[in-house]
Each structure stands twice: as C-alpha cells, then as structure tokens.
Specification:
Low-confidence stretches: 1-13
Distance between the termini: 52 Å
CATH topology of the largest domain: Glutaredoxin
Shape: globular
Strand order of the largest sheet: 2-1-3-4
Helix content: 40-55%
Order of helices and strands: HHEHHEHHHHHEEHEHEHHHHHHEEH
CATH class of the largest domain: Alpha Beta
Number of domains: 2
Radius of gyration: 23 Å
Number of strands: 8
C-alpha cells in the first residue's frame, strides 16, 4: 500500500479527483459482479474447493456469536471452512479504542438474545485467560477447531477457570507456538484486506460477523452449493416490533449523521420510514466526518467500508451510485447552513438531500448554485439562509453534537440515541446495522 493512501479520503494526502475515483471503484456494482465472476473462473481453473476462511479472535465479543453459527453453515452448504486464529486488530484501523471496546461488549450483550445465543459476560476476560484460550486453540487440530473454540468461548466469557485449565492440559502449547499461530493468522487476515476478527472470507469478498453472514449464504446459494432445497438462514433475528408503532406517547430519536459517510447515506431512507411509522420526535444532530476530526482511515479499511455500504445500499433499495466526496470546504459550507435550516424544521431533509447528492448524483455540495437550489427546493428563503455562510456557530454545534454522541461510547456514524420525551434513560446505538434494534427499543418503550 502506498503511504499516501493511508488517509485516502483526506485532502491533505490525496486529490479530490483520485479520492472520488477510488470510492466509485470500491462501490461499483459492475466491478463487484466482475470480481465474483473472475474469482469463480480462477477457482475452477486452479481446481480448488469451495473454501471459506473464518477469522476467530477469542476476546472479540462478536466472535462468540459467529463461532456458534459455523457448524450450521457447514451442514447447510457443500463447503469447507478453514478457521484462522487471529489476535489484536490492526491498530491503524481502530479509532477511540476504549469507546470501541466498551461499545462492542454492550452491543453483543444486547443483540445475542435476538439470535437465541447466550452471551454470559459482563466484562472482558483477563489477559491471563485470553492467553490460555489462544494457547488451547493454537494446538487444536483443524477438524476440531470449531467444536473446541465454541467450548473455549463459553468458558472464557463465563470466567470458567476450571474448564479453561482442563482444556489447557488437553491441548498444551508453547509460547512460541501461540505467538507464531497468531502472527500467521494476522498476516493472512491482513493479506485478505481485513482488520477485525469475526469475519468470513470467500473468493475476494469479506463478510463481517452475523450481520453479513446472509450475503455469504446468498453467494453460496447462487453457486448451487446448498445441500438441500429447504436451507433456512443460518442466523435469523427474533424480532417483536410491528411495522407500525402507534402510541399516545412518544420517544426522542436523535440521529447523528455525517456528510462523508456512505453508511449514513444508506440509513436515511430507513430513518425516514421509522419516523413515519413510529411515534417519535426525530432530532438531527450532524457531526464532522472522522477525516475532518483528525482521524485517518487506511485504504484497505476504506475499501471495505465503501464496498460493504454499497452492498447494504443495494439490499435496502437505496443504492450508492456516483460519489463526490465532500471532505473539506464543501462539507464546511454545507454544515454552515444547517443551523438555520434545522431551525426552520428541515434539518433532516437537508442532510438527506446532501447525502443523495454526494453518494448518488456525484454532485459537489459545496457549489453555491447547488446549495441555493436545494434551499429553495426545501421551501426556504435563500437570501436569509445564505447569511449563515459568514457565521461560525455551526462549529460549536457540531462539537457539542460529537460530545453528546461520545457519551454513549459512539464515535462513528450514523449513531443514534433514544430517550424518553423528558430526555431520560438514554439508549445509544451505533451503525445502520442496528436499525432493527432501534425499532425494538422504541416498541419496548411505547408498549
């Protein structure tokens, strides 16, 4: 990787033209399909089996969920699964480490029951137990990895010292063996363009955790690999919330978007649907993009984020098409108008239109003519709204929004906060992946 691509979306290291081309390539459905076709051709030419790689990290809460699903995956499809033990995430790919760890643990505690998976932990395991867990799995035969890894995971997250120690005796391993195993696992994970555990890889494509397992199933089904005609989804959510939630009460839903986020773009349509079909007060509080907050995104992570968001957008019929990244001046100009537009009651609509322009229409949202047309389209007075170009009040507003978001261990976008109407009992959620969880929480509070 060229060092210049380390912050590929930032104007400080790469021109807007190259940045936009990189993003468009990563999100292209045409290229996505081409890669799949060519990967299958090459697999056949090399006479390789249908092999799925699974990256397992013992102290990753999400790996506890995925390890429970693999035997069912193997029994449903004519594939082999190669399990790869990995260690710490690539540090350049993790931001706000303490918030990240706190949030991951809380997120898995919340979502596990919806998958009918027991997650017994209240905190992260000790370093000593983590080492022992890695030691066990460094010595396990490949054909027993899933079975033993599942036992280790339950023991680790239950703080079951006896089981861990008994497994250590059954599978003794040296320090060098453990270190080499994790080193080689990390290298393979990195070579495949990923950076976390709990991920699957199959022929040029990555699938993170239970949230993306359905995409792998769809691909395996397209290849005719299902073992029977009545194969059911490996990981189905058990949801209770109805399509429409009516109540005499209301809850507040605070939405934290950013203008350079493909995940934010693909969430807007569902946020609007939630606002229409539920008794909520929708509050929009934008934040600066991570790259304008001094963070960097390595190219392999950027590529995965954009390609994954594009995949999700196609799923929810809100595609990413032509991208023009607004990083820098375009974003600052667009943000400067937000307070006045939000005051007029059109804040969410404004952000939605900006994201559609950036991720579907390939428009520079910093262009004055575009902003004028948009403001008029929203039914507002351009001569009044444009006065805020000269104001810097939006910067303080966005800083305050970010601080509020951080209070819930959320650092990325889109993030959400649910509160009662009196702003009590905050419930924070990060990511468009959890729109279903937001709806479940709203339903619980209103019924």
């Amino acid at each position: 990787m060229l060092k210049a691509f380390k912050s590929y979306m930032s104007k400080r290291t790469i021109t807007a033209k190259i940045r936009n081309q990189f993003m468009n390539n990563a999100s292209s459905y045409k290229l996505f399909k081409s890669v799949r076709v060519n990967a299958e051709i090459k697999r056949k030419e090399e006479n390789r089996p249908h092999e799925v790689l699974y990256f397992h990290k013992v102290d990753d809460p999400y790996s506890h969920l995925t390890i429970q699903c693999i035997e069912k995956l193997k029994s449903s499809y004519a594939i082999s699964v190669k399990s790869i033990l990995v260690g710490e995430e690539n540090p350049e790919a993790v931001h706000e480490t303490s918030l990240y760890r706190n949030y991951c643990l809380e997120d898995v505690k919340r979502i596990a029951p919806f998958y009918d998976i027991v997650f017994p932990a209240k905190s992260y395991p000790s370093k000593d137990l983590i080492y022992k867990a890695n030691s066990i799995l460094s010595q396990v035969d490949a054909n027993k990895f899933i079975e033993i890894a599942s036992k280790v995971s339950f023991a680790l997250w239950s703080n079951d010292l006896e089981t861990i120690d008994n497994l250590c005796k059954a599978f003794p391993s040296s320090d060098s063996t453990v270190a080499n195993k994790i080193l080689s696992g990390n290298k393979l994970r990195n070579d495949k363009g990923y950076y976390f555990g709990s991920a699957f890889y199959y022929e040029k494509e990555l699938y993170w955790g239970v949230d993306r397992l359905s995409y792998l199933e769809e691909r395996l089904t397209e290849l005719g690999l299902q073992k029977s005609f009545d194969v059911k989804p490996i990981c189905s959510l058990r949801l209770k919330a109805p399509e429409t939630i009516n109540s005499s009460k209301k809850v507040n839903l605070t939405y934290f978007p950013s203008l350079n986020s493909p995940y934010t773009h693909i969430s807007t349509q569902r946020v609007q649907e939630l606002a229409t079909n539920s008794s909520i007060n929708l509050i929009t509080k934008p934040v600066l993009p991570m790259l304008m907050r001094g963070m960097t995104i390595p190219s392999y992570k950027g590529k995965y984020i954009i390609s994954d968001a594009a995949r999700e957008g196609r799923k929810y019929n809100h595609e990413i098409k032509s991208i023009y990244s607004p990083i820098g001046l375009p974003a600052r100009k667009a943000y400067s108008l937000f307070p006045a537009i939000d005051e007029a009651g059109m804040g969410f609509d404004y952000i939605t239109e900006l994201l559609n322009a950036s991720f579907q229409d390939g428009v520079n949202i910093g262009d004055d003519a575009y902003l004028q047309n948009l403001v008029c389209k929203l039914g507002l007075n351009w001569d009044e709204i444009k006065k805020t170009f000269k104001s810097n009040s939006w910067k303080k507003d966005l800083d305050n929004n970010l601080k509020e978001m951080y209070e819930g261990d959320c650092w990325g976008v889109p993030s959400f906060k649910i509160t009662n109407e009196d702003e009590s009992d905050p419930f924070y959620v990060w990511g468009q992946d959890r729109m279903w969880l937001i709806k479940e929480e709203i339903n619980n509070r209103l019924n």
